[in-house]
């Protein structure tokens, strides 16, 4: 008689109620990325601007001679703008393979045969990308605000710029949601994460180039809505109560962003299925 | 599990045509040639494909209304290879367990147990992408079993396996159905696989149910089957087949001069008279019987009869 029965045994333990599988997907995705050294390198690199800004805040708080470098509300807008590059790099590194790799490995049929809805699968994948993007946008910006309070020893700056907390939050979310959903939609269109990376880069640079050409021809910045990057910059300027940098009405830029997210969700709805029907 | 008047349409093609079927508890074989609609039926029952019309119930629950509850109690082993990229076997199976609602610790424990059960215990820390075809089939079975489903859908589980691996896989399936009380539906175009593992069968052909019921019952009515090799002197073989069929027998020619002849009980006098009747008819029509071997009705006969194969 064997000491331990290695044949199949029925399971009598507890089970989670359906609706929480997205957290399992998100957690697995986050852990698998943290284990990668290259990714950790990118993450550390993305936090270098934060260190520079923290030093700037420390110096201006302790040395009156450097008061001309004291942070303003605009500083926090600049922090988010500086992070645009890292958002771009991390979106490609993390996002390109999120769904494409699953499609290549026929994993969708495995996922969707489990008690989870397609929206849960998408939410889990989106959470992986959004988590890391917030980690390089919202988290450093909010930490800088906290550091400002700590180094100055009072709440005066925060009290005078109370709108900064919601502004940083909304602006970060706008950046993150736009990048997350457009990348996920592109990732669902292909089985090759390399192709998705090229496609995303192409869209970002191509729309930027189109805007540049149109601006050169017309001499007006009112066509900034053609690029998601300029549209996002325009809306975020308004969120930080700064004068918009382009003549495009910010509402138009916002509509472009919302439309892009809506189209991306629609693409995901069509592409994320347990079975691919070819007629 | 039951389907009522289910129709599934892909573009202009009807993959399932007004299918009504009831699946008994235990091991049920879903048998049919490629393109018969077996996989479409399983995918519809999983909720992957929405039928154009009809109703489906699995484990007493409506597929359209409560798909999540059904999938929580169901394990699916797909036909094509599938895995989560970048994971080793134990992580993958545990992950599937968690997706099905098992707590993390339980899922990991079950993953180890199930991997041992399917014969991958020694390879459980290897990346799945390095697995052979046979191992990939086993890992697919493991991920379907990890959450201890009440019902298992196995879509062509022996595809691409070598004979030894195939036998082991069939033993596992048989053990699950007959010793572990797991209800399962085995979709296959391989008659021996279904005959070895299942008690019931649903025969599909061209998107319709051609026959269904207990295998033993479908093999009946009582009668005898003979493998026959003949040489026709002067006439032609089809004329002789017509003669046999005229005498109440059923013929399925598998080669130029080889055929399987089913003699229903009562068609002759019994007690060896079946063979004598065949010899007599052969002699009357100048046909030499070169080889005659008694056989028993197999699922192949049921299948051939159901789909109307010659």
Helix and strand arrangement:
The complex is a heterodimer of chains A (279) and B (310).
Chain A: H1 21-34, H2 37-46, H3 48-62, H4 73-82, H5 84-104, H6 108-112, H7 118-136, H8 138-152, H9 156-160, H10 164-188, H11 193-218, H12 228-239, H13 250-271
Helix pairs in contact in A: 1-7, 2-5, 3-8, 4-10, 5-7, 5-10, 5-11, 7-8, 7-10, 8-10, 10-11, 10-12, 10-13, 12-13
Chain B: E1 2-10, E2 13-22, E3 27-31, H1 38-46, E4 53-58, E5 61-62, H2 67-72, E6 74-77, H3 89-99, H4 104-117, H5 133-145, E7 151-155, H6 163-178, E8 183-188, H7 191-197, E9 200-205, E10 208-214, H8 215-219, E11 223-232, H9 237-246, E12 250-253, E13 258-264, H10 273-284, E14 287-295, H11 299-307
Parallel strand pairs in B: 3-8, 3-9, 6-7, 7-8
Antiparallel strand pairs in B: 1-2, 1-4, 4-5, 9-10, 11-13, 11-14, 12-13
Find the count of extended strands of chain A (DSSP E, 2+ residues): 0
Radius of gyration of chain A: 22 Å
SSE topology string of chain B? EEEHEEHEHHHEHEHEEHEHEEHEH
Percent helix of chain B: 25-40%
Query: Structural class, from secondary structure content of chain B?
Result: alpha/beta
List descriptors.
heterodimer; A: 279 residues; mainly alpha; 13 helices; 71% helix; B: 310 residues; alpha/beta; Rossmann fold; Alpha-Beta Plaits; 2 domains; four-stranded antiparallel sheet; 11 helices; 14 strands; elongated
